[in-house]
Protein backbone atom coordinates (compact mmCIF):
# COMPACT_ATOMS: atom_id res chain seq x y z
CA UNK A 1 0.00 0.00 0.00
CA UNK A 2 2.79 2.39 0.95
CA UNK A 3 4.67 1.55 -2.26
CA UNK A 4 1.59 2.28 -4.35
CA UNK A 5 1.10 5.61 -2.60
CA UNK A 6 4.76 6.48 -3.16
CA UNK A 7 4.43 5.69 -6.87
CA UNK A 8 1.32 7.88 -7.02
CA UNK A 9 3.18 10.74 -5.38
CA UNK A 10 6.12 10.42 -7.79
CA UNK A 11 3.76 10.32 -10.75
CA UNK A 12 2.08 13.50 -9.59
CA UNK A 13 5.47 15.15 -9.13
CA UNK A 14 6.55 14.21 -12.64
CA UNK A 15 3.28 15.58 -13.93
CA UNK A 16 4.20 19.06 -12.72
CA UNK A 17 7.86 18.89 -13.71
CA UNK A 18 7.23 20.92 -16.83
CA UNK A 19 5.64 23.63 -14.70
CA UNK A 20 9.01 25.27 -14.21
CA UNK A 21 10.13 25.10 -17.82
CA UNK A 22 9.72 28.34 -19.76
CA UNK A 23 8.51 27.78 -23.29
CA UNK A 24 11.02 29.36 -25.66
CA UNK A 25 9.09 28.57 -28.82
CA UNK A 26 10.12 30.05 -32.14
CA UNK A 27 6.66 30.09 -33.68
CA UNK A 28 4.83 31.17 -30.56
CA UNK A 29 6.56 34.00 -28.77
CA UNK A 30 6.49 33.53 -25.02
CA UNK A 31 9.25 35.98 -24.21
CA UNK A 32 8.37 38.51 -21.58
CA UNK A 33 9.20 42.19 -21.36
CA UNK A 34 12.77 42.39 -20.07
CA UNK A 35 11.89 45.40 -17.92
CA UNK A 36 9.41 43.32 -15.92
CA UNK A 37 12.19 41.08 -14.58
CA UNK A 38 15.27 43.28 -14.06
CA UNK A 39 16.97 40.68 -11.85
CA UNK A 40 17.00 37.91 -14.48
CA UNK A 41 19.57 37.78 -17.31
CA UNK A 42 18.02 39.00 -20.55
CA UNK A 43 18.56 35.71 -22.39
CA UNK A 44 16.58 33.91 -19.67
CA UNK A 45 13.62 36.30 -19.53
CA UNK A 46 10.63 34.24 -20.64
CA UNK A 47 7.08 33.99 -19.44
CA UNK A 48 7.16 31.73 -16.44
CA UNK A 49 10.73 32.62 -15.43
CA UNK A 50 10.19 34.92 -12.48
CA UNK A 51 11.88 36.06 -9.29
CA UNK A 52 13.03 34.76 -6.90
CA UNK A 53 13.67 31.47 -8.72
CA UNK A 54 14.25 32.91 -12.18
CA UNK A 55 15.11 30.37 -14.86
CA UNK A 56 14.61 26.95 -13.25
CA UNK A 57 15.17 23.82 -15.31
CA UNK A 58 17.47 21.42 -13.39
CA UNK A 59 16.42 18.42 -15.50
CA UNK A 60 17.09 20.17 -18.81
CA UNK A 61 13.55 19.64 -20.07
CA UNK A 62 13.75 22.84 -22.12
CA UNK A 63 16.43 21.19 -24.25
CA UNK A 64 14.27 18.19 -25.13
CA UNK A 65 12.71 17.90 -28.56
CA UNK A 66 11.86 20.85 -30.78
CA UNK A 67 10.26 24.27 -30.28
CA UNK A 68 6.96 22.57 -31.08
CA UNK A 69 7.59 20.15 -28.22
CA UNK A 70 8.11 23.07 -25.85
CA UNK A 71 4.88 24.65 -27.05
CA UNK A 72 3.14 21.40 -26.14
CA UNK A 73 4.84 21.45 -22.72
CA UNK A 74 3.57 24.97 -22.10
CA UNK A 75 0.04 24.08 -23.21
CA UNK A 76 0.10 21.05 -20.90
CA UNK A 77 1.35 23.18 -18.01
CA UNK A 78 -1.44 25.70 -18.48
CA UNK A 79 -4.03 22.95 -18.76
CA UNK A 80 -2.87 21.15 -15.63
CA UNK A 81 -2.55 24.41 -13.73
CA UNK A 82 -6.09 25.46 -14.60
CA UNK A 83 -7.49 22.06 -13.67
CA UNK A 84 -5.66 22.12 -10.35
CA UNK A 85 -6.79 25.66 -9.55
CA UNK A 86 -10.37 24.48 -10.01
CA UNK A 87 -9.63 21.29 -8.04
CA UNK A 88 -8.08 23.16 -5.10
CA UNK A 89 -11.07 25.50 -4.98
CA UNK A 90 -13.47 22.56 -5.06
CA UNK A 91 -11.48 20.70 -2.40
CA UNK A 92 -11.50 23.66 0.00
CA UNK A 93 -15.17 24.43 -0.60
CA UNK A 94 -16.14 20.81 0.05
CA UNK A 95 -13.90 20.55 3.12
CA UNK A 96 -15.54 23.71 4.47
CA UNK A 97 -18.92 22.00 4.31
CA UNK A 98 -20.32 24.14 1.50
CA UNK A 99 -22.56 22.15 -0.85
CA UNK A 100 -24.73 22.71 -3.87
CA UNK A 101 -28.45 22.78 -3.10
CA UNK A 102 -30.72 19.95 -4.13
CA UNK A 103 -30.02 16.33 -4.96
CA UNK A 104 -27.17 14.75 -6.88
CA UNK A 105 -29.32 11.96 -8.33
CA UNK A 106 -32.93 10.96 -8.91
CA UNK A 107 -32.89 8.72 -5.84
CA UNK A 108 -33.04 11.69 -3.51
CA UNK A 109 -29.42 11.79 -2.34
CA UNK A 110 -28.47 15.38 -1.59
CA UNK A 111 -25.09 16.92 -2.35
CA UNK A 112 -24.67 17.45 1.40
CA UNK A 113 -25.02 13.69 1.96
CA UNK A 114 -21.64 13.19 0.27
CA UNK A 115 -19.93 14.68 3.32
CA UNK A 116 -17.00 17.06 3.62
CA UNK A 117 -14.15 14.59 3.04
CA UNK A 118 -13.23 15.40 -0.59
CA UNK A 119 -11.86 11.95 -1.48
CA UNK A 120 -14.75 10.15 0.20
CA UNK A 121 -17.20 12.54 -1.46
CA UNK A 122 -15.79 11.69 -4.89
CA UNK A 123 -16.04 7.98 -4.13
CA UNK A 124 -19.69 8.48 -3.14
CA UNK A 125 -20.63 10.25 -6.37
CA UNK A 126 -22.85 7.93 -8.46
CA UNK A 127 -21.15 6.34 -11.45
CA UNK A 128 -23.40 8.29 -13.79
CA UNK A 129 -22.22 11.56 -12.27
CA UNK A 130 -18.59 10.56 -12.60
CA UNK A 131 -19.17 9.60 -16.23
CA UNK A 132 -20.73 13.00 -16.95
CA UNK A 133 -17.77 14.85 -15.44
CA UNK A 134 -15.24 12.73 -17.32
CA UNK A 135 -17.20 13.22 -20.55
CA UNK A 136 -17.22 17.01 -20.06
CA UNK A 137 -13.45 17.00 -19.50
CA UNK A 138 -12.98 14.83 -22.57
CA UNK A 139 -15.12 17.22 -24.62
CA UNK A 140 -12.94 20.19 -23.69
CA UNK A 141 -9.76 18.19 -24.28
CA UNK A 142 -10.94 17.02 -27.69
CA UNK A 143 -11.94 20.48 -28.84
CA UNK A 144 -8.75 22.05 -27.57
CA UNK A 145 -6.97 19.85 -30.10
CA UNK A 146 -9.18 21.21 -32.89
CA UNK A 147 -7.90 24.77 -32.47
CA UNK A 148 -6.48 26.24 -35.67
CA UNK A 149 -3.58 26.69 -35.77
CA UNK A 150 -2.71 23.87 -33.39
CA UNK A 151 -0.42 24.75 -30.51
CA UNK A 152 2.37 22.75 -32.15
CA UNK A 153 1.85 24.61 -35.42
CA UNK A 154 2.02 28.17 -34.16
CA UNK A 155 -1.12 28.35 -32.03
CA UNK A 156 -1.29 30.09 -28.66
CA UNK A 157 -0.71 27.69 -25.73
CA UNK A 158 -3.71 27.58 -23.43
CA UNK A 159 -6.10 29.26 -25.86
CA UNK A 160 -9.19 27.14 -26.49
CA UNK A 161 -10.99 28.82 -29.35
CA UNK A 162 -12.60 26.56 -31.95
CA UNK A 163 -15.65 26.92 -34.17
CA UNK A 164 -17.64 24.88 -31.65
CA UNK A 165 -16.27 26.59 -28.54
CA UNK A 166 -15.53 30.20 -29.59
CA UNK A 167 -14.00 32.36 -26.90
CA UNK A 168 -13.96 29.54 -24.34
CA UNK A 169 -10.52 30.48 -23.08
CA UNK A 170 -11.76 33.94 -22.02
CA UNK A 171 -15.57 33.92 -22.04
CA UNK A 172 -15.89 36.94 -19.74
CA UNK A 173 -13.54 39.05 -21.84
CA UNK A 174 -11.03 40.01 -19.15
CA UNK A 175 -8.28 40.45 -21.73
CA UNK A 176 -10.34 42.39 -24.26
CA UNK A 177 -8.62 45.71 -24.91
CA UNK A 178 -5.88 44.94 -22.39
CA UNK A 179 -2.40 46.23 -23.35
CA UNK A 180 0.02 43.51 -24.42
CA UNK A 181 2.38 44.28 -21.53
CA UNK A 182 -0.46 43.79 -19.05
CA UNK A 183 -1.49 40.56 -20.77
CA UNK A 184 2.05 39.26 -20.29
CA UNK A 185 1.86 40.05 -16.58
CA UNK A 186 -1.51 38.32 -16.28
CA UNK A 187 -0.23 35.24 -18.12
CA UNK A 188 2.70 35.05 -15.73
CA UNK A 189 0.33 35.29 -12.77
CA UNK A 190 -1.75 32.47 -14.19
CA UNK A 191 1.35 30.31 -14.54
CA UNK A 192 2.42 31.07 -10.97
CA UNK A 193 -1.03 30.35 -9.53
CA UNK A 194 -1.34 27.18 -11.58
CA UNK A 195 2.03 25.91 -10.38
CA UNK A 196 1.10 26.55 -6.77
CA UNK A 197 -2.23 24.78 -7.30
CA UNK A 198 -0.49 21.71 -8.78
CA UNK A 199 1.78 21.50 -5.74
CA UNK A 200 -1.22 22.05 -3.44
CA UNK A 201 -3.23 19.24 -5.03
CA UNK A 202 -0.26 16.90 -4.80
CA UNK A 203 0.02 17.80 -1.11
CA UNK A 204 -3.69 17.26 -0.48
CA UNK A 205 -3.66 13.83 -2.09
CA UNK A 206 -0.45 12.77 -0.35
CA UNK A 207 -1.82 13.92 3.00
CA UNK A 208 -4.98 11.90 2.39
CA UNK A 209 -3.22 8.73 1.21
CA UNK A 210 -0.04 8.87 3.31
CA UNK A 211 -0.84 10.08 6.85
CA UNK A 212 1.85 12.34 8.25
CA UNK A 213 3.49 12.95 4.87
CA UNK A 214 2.56 16.64 4.76
CA UNK A 215 3.38 18.95 7.71
CA UNK A 216 0.46 20.79 9.33
CA UNK A 217 -2.10 18.61 7.52
CA UNK A 218 -3.42 15.83 9.77
Automatic annotation (TrEMBL):
<keyword id="KW-0157">Chromophore</keyword>
<dbReference type="GO" id="GO:0016020">
    <property type="term" value="C:membrane"/>
</dbReference>
<feature type="binding site">
    <location>
        <position position="189"/>
    </location>
    <ligand>
        <name>chlorophyll a</name>
    </ligand>
</feature>
<protein>
    <recommendedName>
        <fullName>Plastid light harvesting protein</fullName>
    </recommendedName>
</protein>
<keyword id="KW-0148">Chlorophyll</keyword>
<feature type="binding site" description="axial binding residue">
    <location>
        <position position="82"/>
    </location>
    <ligand>
        <name>chlorophyll b</name>
    </ligand>
</feature>
<keyword id="KW-0732">Signal</keyword>
<keyword id="KW-0602">Photosynthesis</keyword>
<feature type="signal peptide">
    <location>
        <begin position="1"/>
        <end position="19"/>
    </location>
</feature>
<comment type="similarity">
    <text>Belongs to the fucoxanthin chlorophyll protein family.</text>
</comment>
<feature type="binding site">
    <location>
        <position position="190"/>
    </location>
    <ligand>
        <name>chlorophyll a</name>
    </ligand>
</feature>
<feature type="binding site">
    <location>
        <position position="195"/>
    </location>
    <ligand>
        <name>chlorophyll a</name>
    </ligand>
</feature>
<dbReference type="GO" id="GO:0016168">
    <property type="term" value="F:chlorophyll binding"/>
</dbReference>
<dbReference type="GO" id="GO:0009507">
    <property type="term" value="C:chloroplast"/>
</dbReference>
<keyword id="KW-0934">Plastid</keyword>
<feature type="binding site">
    <location>
        <position position="77"/>
    </location>
    <ligand>
        <name>chlorophyll a</name>
    </ligand>
</feature>
<dbReference type="Pfam" id="PF00504">
    <property type="entry name" value="Chloroa_b-bind"/>
</dbReference>
<feature type="binding site">
    <location>
        <position position="80"/>
    </location>
    <ligand>
        <name>chlorophyll a</name>
    </ligand>
</feature>
<comment type="function">
    <text>The light-harvesting complex (LHC) functions as a light receptor, it captures and delivers excitation energy to photosystems with which it is closely associated. Energy is transferred from the carotenoid and chlorophyll C (or B) to chlorophyll A and the photosynthetic reaction centers where it is used to synthesize ATP and reducing power.</text>
</comment>
<dbReference type="GO" id="GO:0009765">
    <property type="term" value="P:photosynthesis, light harvesting"/>
</dbReference>
<dbReference type="InterPro" id="IPR001344">
    <property type="entry name" value="Chloro_AB-bd_pln"/>
</dbReference>
<feature type="binding site">
    <location>
        <position position="193"/>
    </location>
    <ligand>
        <name>chlorophyll a</name>
    </ligand>
</feature>
<dbReference type="InterPro" id="IPR022796">
    <property type="entry name" value="Chloroa_b-bind"/>
</dbReference>
<keyword id="KW-0150">Chloroplast</keyword>
Amino acid sequence: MMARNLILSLALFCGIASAFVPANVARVSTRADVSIYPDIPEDRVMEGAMPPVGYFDPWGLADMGTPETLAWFRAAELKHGRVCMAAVTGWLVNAAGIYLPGNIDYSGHSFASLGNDPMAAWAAVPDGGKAQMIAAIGFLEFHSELAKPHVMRGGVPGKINTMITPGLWDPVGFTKGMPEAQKAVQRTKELANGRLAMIAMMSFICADKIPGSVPFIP
